[in-house]
Design goal:
The structure is a single chain. The chain has helices spanning 2-15, 28-35, and strands at residues 20-23, 44-48, 54-58. It is α+β, with helices and mostly antiparallel strands. It has one domain (2-58). It has a three-stranded antiparallel sheet with strand order 1-3-2, with helices on one face. The radius of gyration is 11 Å and the shape is globular.
């Protein structure tokens, strides 16, 4: 079930439906494992927040 939720969140971010997605510290490792499989992985930028949560955004130009 979480994989479907993660896939939907990633697709919304890629399509521009949402500007960013917030992943809790507890979910980060599961989410990242799924995210690295995405063909546009280099377009995602994760910014760590105080406390261990991460906010992901989607970049038009892939990071190096």
């Amino acid at each position: 079930m979480k994989m479907e939720k993660y896939q939907q969140m990633i697709e919304q971010l890629k399509s521009g439906e949402v500007d960013s997605i917030h992943i809790s510290k507890e979910e980060f490792l599961q989410f990242r494992e799924f995210l690295v499989r995405d063909e546009l992985f280099k377009h995602f930028r994760g910014e760590a927040q105080q406390g261990g949560d991460v906010t992901f955004t989607f970049l038009k130009v892939p990071r190096s």
